[in-house]
Amino acid sequence: MNLFSVVPDRFFSVLASPLKEHYAGILFRIYDQYLLTSLGMERDVVVDVIVDYIEEYWEENGQFAGALEDEIWEESLDNLSGSRERAAFVLRRLEACGWLTTETYSNYRQYVNINDYAIKILDTLDKIRKNRQAEYQGFVYATYTLLYSEEVNRQANLALEKAYEQTELLLNGLKTLNHNIKRYIERVLAEKQPKDILRIHFEDYKQEIIDRSYHRLKTSDNVSRYRPKIIKRISEWYNDPAWVAATAGLDVKRGRYPDRSTAEMETYSRLDYIRQAYTEMDELLEEIDRRNSQYANASFLQLKYILNSSKDVEGQLMESLKYLAGLLREEGYRRDQGLPGDFGRLFSLFSQSYVDYYSLYNAREAARSHTPAAFRELAGPGGEERRKALRKYREKMARRMTRERINAFVLEKLGGKDSIRAREMGVEELEDFLKLIYAAAYGNSRLVNYRVDFNTGTRVSSGNGRFEFKDALFLRRRPRP
């Protein structure tokens, strides 16, 4: 769907006008008041909110007053003198751009509501304005609670949907933290005064990044606490076709998807997204650690560069470069001009060569005639040796525990049955025991025609007590309809 089939064309015009800061301030005040109501706000209350804002900034900001009067004249060809008249104009402007809607209720009173799409945009802008930091542990704990709640079997589709949303919020929060650290690196490299670098490091960066996000991410909000259980539950659902089919059926009943096939595909997609997000999260966490170390190193080197006042060659060269950079910035020197003042005599650059091993003259040598030796075919292995080597290779390949071989082994043991216990698989020799181990390992793969249930069964022994293992249940996996 096209964005502007939902959002009006002039929606963002108030945030791109000369009064954008004040329109944003008015919208945020209306939004804060709107959150306290349930059925919208009376029109007179909204006008009072706008009047308070206009009167607050009218006297202390002459530029705001002039810009608002110019806009009123351009829109209505009128000069409004009262604060309520100006507030009513601002309200009509916000209504015309699609931010607000006025309705008349059965009590003949007019109520102002913020449009649904405008609420979402204002909520996002308000979080950006207040610099709200994500509570990463909250997202992880919410996902864990959804997956292990008592109602998960009755409303599995809702649990999966909300867990998917919480995982999206978690990843977006971590990506935002990574980007914010990069932004601070750029800020500290752009500063030229030591006090500004120290303020950024010990005030802004410490409060906004270290205290609010990075320290919590490493301590109380560590995502590794619930991650193994989340991955375990998602993997169980992913490898259970019956659960996927039931969940897809619930989504079809809700009208989320037109048919069961589409619903199952979306269910698998969400399960895979959550599992992949938590499995590969270490890479993103390592990148955040690397960015944090990079910021610390950048701030230290930038401060060292600015404060370097030593009298050695490095310090004197730094002072000279600072002086030349100041000339280019302040006095308009061009890069193609010569060095000013006595700087030209300080540098005498020339190319210097020296004699070394590679400088010696290489005398020419006469061409030599070359008589190649006769080609002699080496004796290779005979036919019998090749057949013997090939037979050993085939025997070695036959002993490999491939997924296809193990799948055939389990299906052979199942025969015509739907399930079989591990103790019934005839584990007498070491090779049989190895096949049982591989069969249990391959049970989570969707490429085999069986699955393994470890939740039931006790430990048993076989082979005259040489082998001990859990009496797991091997079940035939039915193809999805």
TrEMBL record:
A Pfam family the protein falls into: JetA
Highest taxon of source: Bacteria
Name of the protein in question: TIGR02677 family protein
Organism placement in taxonomy: Bacteria, Bacillati, Bacillota, Clostridia, Eubacteriales
